[in-house]
From TrEMBL:
GO terms for molecular function: guanyl-nucleotide exchange factor activity; translation initiation factor activity; translation initiation factor binding. It comes from Phellinidium pouzarii. PANTHER family: TRANSLATION INITIATION FACTOR EIF-2B SUBUNIT EPSILON. Residues 439-450, 478-488, 726-750 have a biased composition (Acidic residues). Residues 561-734 form the W2 domain. CDD domains: eIF-2B_epsilon_N, LbH_G1P_AT_C_like, W2_eIF2B_epsilon. This is Translation initiation factor eIF2B subunit epsilon. It is found in: Cytoplasm, Cytosol. Residues 510-520 have a biased composition (Low complexity). The keyword Heme does not apply.
Length: 750
């Protein structure tokens, strides 16, 4: 008979082997932000860089070691199920088991989906919860290990949320949807959570007083990107089942658990400073995530390596982050132009004098002579005829844009639409096909009432704007209705911050430099309900000029201002030591991170200090341009990478900080040369410079004393962008010349 100890070990081993990492993917979006693009397919099957969002999500989970995935779907469920069955993920070699779970038609929220998960009972242990529009290279398995280790010590730790540090102007940071997180500095337990809309701007936030009394060290953060990656215990679905008023995971569940006096459960945050994770939650993030993939922020998930699309489709990576299909190379006319951050799918043709820049072009597309496509996404089989212009828009599968048409920024054109000829679509126009002009699927009847409303709104003027051969319907815009109440109006206006091509410049959103003071009535109210007021907290986090956290008294304001000054002095001293003693960049970064954690200041403050330190380290060499350039190259080459090493990489914010510092220092004349050096050393990229240049703030405000100098920097940036375009043209000309020389050599040899 075997010893008891051996028998116990033999029984325990299979249990360990059976515990596999499971993930739940919520395939439904539960909103209409992509309509009319989602009339014929769900959001999770929309293509991003020529692969479906669901494929990117599966690839992200596979990279993290997930072995079993349950896909919860309601809308277009059969389409999702068949797509999975026909994909590479259903092959035995994929190493992942994917199980689609079709939920009831009555599921209209994430909370309903979680209750369905509880009812089905297929989850056996702690699991990863994500949406079907996630793109990530984060090692989620490491987060799971940390979560399980925490659970061994505290069984009430039911969830770990993955959040990422990012600058205020990071293009993946949603402008219309941010959050305030209050964390325990030592354990990263989430003590308070508050969702924040971009419009109307939040001037007042409150933290329960008991949090301040029970925790000696807190972090109040508004500089996080919520990755919407959660590691959940088995208790999470059951809590949704017990609380039918939980609909949204963040606004209802997280907020409900943290404010409940009965549940006594804990939620933690896992803060990442490296890696990439973002959701395609709206058309603005659709555009930004596409650019992030092309800019290789998602490596190793990039088009030329680990592209999650069809196994038969592969891409070549060229200079300027251009990607060309290898399986069926695109046909490029000699005088066509392909700019940076561009992807061309299989069997695509670009005619003479056509230009495409910072865009994704699908398979079997055609761009006619003289056509221009900028900052746009064209899905498969799109045809753009001669002289057409498309800017910052999304065109669905099989769209045809007839000659001489112009599509302004922010337009969404659904599958099968014909536009033109000589059409003029104003910005933010949404167009779908008329009923009966394309084959309808089984779910079209659910959209009939909405399409009837759209059809009823058509006028002769609208039809004329689409062109004489169009089969389209223009959807009503999101203008404010006089009959709406204030909340509905604010919600509608906030949606503008989530749309591609809409800079919302006419909206009065949070002023990065403003900080509001508490009124006496606010203070009295706070004392009554046991909360501490934080007026203007968003202004603090997003501002480079705000220097103190507004509080209940002038004494607290002075104390915070003093703390800010002390932090700046410590950072300056740390940088001075690093520069003087020749520390490594890594060691200097570690010291700065430690200072930041001890002082609890926004990441931007550290970035400002580092940029200022590096720029001020450059010796000024009057009347010696060559020597001055050499000094700039030497300093930036030695210390430029420190800007990224402090964490929360945001190159657009880096350029903005450089502009602000140079505009108020004697080194104004060095702005262009320093920016060029940062570009040469890969601290910023061409697309980052373009994104900074497009910001309204980069032009300088008349209310700021340094406005004229800010404008000078902006003009320098415009010249640099022009040089980029000229270099691209020269590169194309050289390639054409090389091709001509090769053909001439072949003719001579024959």
């Amino acid at each position: 008979m075997a010893p008891k100890g051996s028998a116990g070990k033999e029984k325990a081993a299979p249990e360990e082997e059976e515990e596999i990492l499971q993930a739940v993917v919520l395939a439904d979006s539960f909103n209409n932000r992509f309509k009319p693009l989602t009339l014929s397919k769900p959001r999770c099957l929309l293509p991003v860089c020529n692969a479906t969002l669901l494929d990117w999500t599966f690839e992200s989970l596979a990279l993290a070691g997930v072995q079993e995935i349950f896909v919860i779907c309601r809308s277009h469920a059969k389409q999702i199920k068949s797509t999975i069955a026909e994909s590479k993920w259903s092959q035995p070699s994929s190493g992942i088991k994917i199980v689609p779970i079709i939920t009831a038609k009555e599921s209209f929220s994430a909370g309903d989906a979680m209750r369905d998960i509880y009812t089905h009972g297929f989850i056996k242990s702690d699991f990863v919860l994500v949406a079907g529009d996630l793109v990530s290279n984060v090692r989620i398995d490491e987060v799971v290990r940390a979560h399980k280790e925490r659970r061994r010590k505290n069984r009430d730790a039911i969830m770990t949320m993955v959040i990422k540090e990012a600058g205020a102007v990071h293009r993946s940071r949603p402008r219309g949807e941010t959050s305030i997180f209050v964390l325990d500095s030592n354990t990263h337990e989430c003590l308070h959570y508050e969702p924040v809309q971009g419009y109307p701007p939040l001037a007042h936030a409150s933290v329960p007083r008991e949090i301040l009394t029970e925790h000696s060290e807190l972090e109040i953060r508004n500089d996080f990107i919520d990755c919407n990656i959660d590691v959940c215990s088995l208790e999470v679905p059951s809590l949704f089942q017990d609380n039918f008023d939980y609909q949204d995971i963040r606004r209802d569940f997280v907020h409900g658990v943290l404010t409940s006096d009965l549940l006594m459960k804990n939620i933690y945050c896992h803060v990442i400073t490296d890696g990439y994770a973002a959701r395609v939650k709206d058309t603005r993030s659709y555009a930004s995530v596409s650019k992030d993939i092309l800019a290789r922020w998602t490596f190793p998930l990039v088009p030329d390596d680990n592209h999650p699309g069809s196994a038969s489709t592969s891409y070549e990576h060229a200079r300027g982050n251009k990607y060309f299909s290898l399986s069926s190379p695109p046909q490029l006319a000699r005088t066509s132009h392909v700019g940076p951050l561009t992807q061309l799918g299989p069997d695509t043709s670009i005619a003479a004098d056509a230009r495409v820049t910072r865009s994704v072009i699908g398979a079997h597309c055609f761009l006619g002579p003289g056509a221009t496509v900028t900052d746009s996404n064209l899905w498969d089989a799109v045809r753009v005829e001669a002289g057409c212009v498309i800017e910052s828009s999304v065109l669905g599968k099989g769209v045809t844009v007839l000659r001489g048409s112009r599509i302004e920024r922010g337009c969404l054109i659904a599958d099968g639409v014909v536009i033109g000829p000589e059409a003029r679509l104003k910005k933010l126009t949404r167009v779908s096909v008329r009923r009966g002009t394309v084959e309808e699927d089984e779910e079209d009847e659910d959209e009939d009432s909405e399409l009837e409303h759209v059809e009823a709104s058509q006028t002769s003027e609208i039809r004329a704007s689409l062109g004489s051969e169009s089969n389209g319907l223009v959807w009503p815009d999101d203008s404010v209705d006089e009959d709406e109440d204030e909340d509905e109006t604010h919600s509608r206006l906030n949606q503008r911050l989530l749309r591609i091509g809409d800079n919302a410049s006419d909206l009065d959103i949070s002023d990065a430099g403003s900080v509001t003071s508490s009124s006496d009535s606010d203070a009295d109210s706070d004392a009554d309900d046991g909360t501490l007021s934080m007026n203007g907290v968003l202004g603090l986090q997003l501002s480079s000029s705000a220097t103190s956290l507004p509080s209940e008294s002038a004494v607290a304001e002075l104390a915070d201002a003093q703390a800010q000054r002390e932090f700046q002095a410590e950072v300056s001293a740390s940088l001075a030591r690093a520069f003087a003693e020749g520390h490594s960049v890594d060691n200097a970064a570690v010291e700065l991170k430690t200072l930041r954690m001890a002082s609890n200041v926004p990441l931007r403050r550290v970035r400002e200090a580092v940029v200022a330190g590096v720029v001020d380290l450059i010796p000024l060499v009057p009347d010696a341009p060559a020597q001055q350039r050499a000094e700039i190259a030497r300093v930036v080459g030695r210390w430029g990478q420190l800007i990224d090493s402090i964490g929360g990489i945001d190159a657009v914010e880096t350029v903005a900080v450089l502009q602000e510092h140079c505009s108020q220092s004697p080194r104004l004349a060095l702005f262009g040369q320093v920016l060029a050096a940062l570009y040469q050393h890969d601290v910023v990229e061409e697309d980052d410079i373009r994104a900074w240049h497009a910001l309204t703030a980069s032009r300088g405000s008349s209310e700021v004393a340094t406005a004229e100098n800010m404008r000078k920097c902006w003009v320098v940036g415009a010249r640099m962008i022009k040089q980029f375009e000229e270099q691209d043209d020269d590169s194309e000309d050289e390639e054409d010349k090389d091709e001509e020389d090769e053909s001439e050599s072949e003719e001579e040899s024959s």
